[in-house]
Write a structure and sequence with these properties.
about 220 residues; mainly alpha; Arc Repressor Mutant, subunit A; Four Helix Bundle (Hemerythrin (Met), subunit A); 2 domains; 9 helices; globular
Length: about 220
């Protein structure tokens, strides 16, 4: 059975499929920072044509996860902790706005989807399953982006989401607590599902507080 987009219910395009698979490979460090990528190799590995792979790589470049060097190749971008702290300053404000807006504007169907994500997050926390958590985190980000009904906030956040997720995955085994991260996400998802605008804002801030503490701890590792 084909995968379906959580927000539209439609089967994803080949470009979207390529993007999702490559984003996960980069975020979960199967493709490590500094790795040189080949369109032909990735196309053969994923069983997808080179055109969707190329389009996905350009999207990943816009999000800062790869660097395209003309006539030199494509590199997975490096990770910089101090840049991550500057990113968190911006992320805090945008995520709070998006969580508040999603809580106010989500449809009944979307609220059920948030409840499902919250339940999955709790299960991932109980089982200490970081890959499932990362997949649910991507679904959560996409659903918030859709339900906030603010394309400017969603577009701004899309440029940061992959960098945030990759940084967390790289450092969580040393300085972070995946079950706590999953439960923090579940709190935001439930607040949105319940239509509680103030709780959505508060739990969003708590989630970013957690992310910032993990990032600062990484400076000492």
């Amino acid at each position: 059975m084909a995968d379906h987009d959580e927000t539209t219910g439609k089967a994803p395009s080949l470009t979207e499929r390529a993007y999702k698979e490559l984003e996960e490979m980069i975020v979960t460090l199967l493709l490590e920072p500094g790795a040189v990528l080949s369109e032909a190799t990735l196309a053969a590995q994923l069983g997808i044509g080179r055109t969707p792979i190329r389009e996905a790589l350009h999207r990943l470049a816009r999000e800062g996860l790869v660097v395209i060097l003309p006539r030199r190749g494509i590199l997975v971008s490096e990770i910089n902790i101090r840049s991550q702290l500057r990113l968190i300053e911006v992320r805090r404000e945008i995520e709070r706005l998006m969580a508040r807006s999603a809580a106010a504007r989500a449809t009944d169907h979307e609220r059920r989807a948030f409840r499902d994500i919250a339940s999955g997050m709790v299960t991932a926390a109980d089982e200490d399953d970081d890959v499932t958590f990362m997949r649910l985190d991507l679904q959560f980000n996409q659903l918030v982006a859709a339900t906030c009904r603010n394309e400017y906030a969603a577009n701004a956040m899309s440029l940061m989401a992959g960098l945030v997720r990759r940084f967390w995955f790289m450092h969580h085994k040393l300085v972070a607590d995946m079950p706590l991260a999953a439960k923090r996400h579940a709190d935001v998802a439930l607040a949105i599902a319940q239509g509680d605008v103030e709780a959505a804002a508060a739990t969003s801030d708590q989630l970013v507080d957690y992310a910032e503490s993990c990032t600062r701890a990484s400076l000492d590792t």
